[in-house]
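in:
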């Protein structure tokens, strides 16, 4: 019988890959903000589609208490990803607004999840506060310029990527701890 820790532990590398994609997206956007606005839209769309798939899979196979939140976040990420990929150049302002809405929604859901499950909560709260604050800033001041928002979004992606990579390796360490625990069996003794 596979425990939930073992199940998640086997897929630790998905968090690392997702984190690497976030960091690469963020670095490229910081280095070339003017040239990469279209690329940002496409790469952010790809990231959101991967995140949507992961959330929808979690909604189907994850903890019953968090399935609704995973489904909502998966649908929001799917819609946001489709918008990013479908209209990267024609609707840069829409991309900025969708990014802001997504970050606020994800921030709130991360904070709710942090308090609904056992374990260290400050990672979830910190990520949720960061995402929510980034989304609020993006939504509050869209007039500060799309390039500035692209750079701000890039920094958000780098931080999110770093958090995802740390989480992936922490999950891997949990899996190793589960593998090392001895299996206790009951043996019948005769008198």
């Amino acid at each position: 019988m596979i425990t939930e820790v073992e199940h998640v532990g086997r897929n630790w590398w998905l968090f690392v890959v997702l984190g690497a994609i976030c960091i690469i997206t963020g670095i490229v956007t910081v280095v070339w903000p003017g040239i990469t606005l279209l690329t940002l839209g496409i790469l952010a769309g790809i990231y959101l589609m991967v995140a949507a798939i992961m959330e929808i899979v979690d909604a189907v196979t994850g903890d019953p208490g968090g399935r609704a939140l995973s489904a909502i976040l998966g649908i929001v990420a799917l819609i946001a990803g489709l918008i990013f990929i479908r209209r990267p150049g024609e609707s840069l302002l829409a991309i900025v607004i969708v990014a802001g809405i997504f970050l606020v929604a994800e921030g709130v859901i991360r904070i709710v999840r942090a308090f609904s499950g056992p374990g260290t909560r400050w990672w979830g709260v910190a990520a949720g506060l960061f995402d929510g604050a980034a989304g609020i800033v993006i939504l509050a001041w869209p007039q500060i310029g799309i390039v500035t928002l692209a750079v701000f979004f890039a920094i958000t992606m780098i931080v999110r990527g770093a958090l995802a990579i740390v989480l992936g390796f922490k999950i891997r360490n949990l899996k190793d701890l589960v593998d090392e625990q001895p299996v206790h069996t009951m043996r019948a003794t005769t008198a």
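note: Residues 4-176 form a domain with the Serine Threonine Protein Phosphatase 5, Tetratricopeptide repeat fold (CATH 1.25.40).
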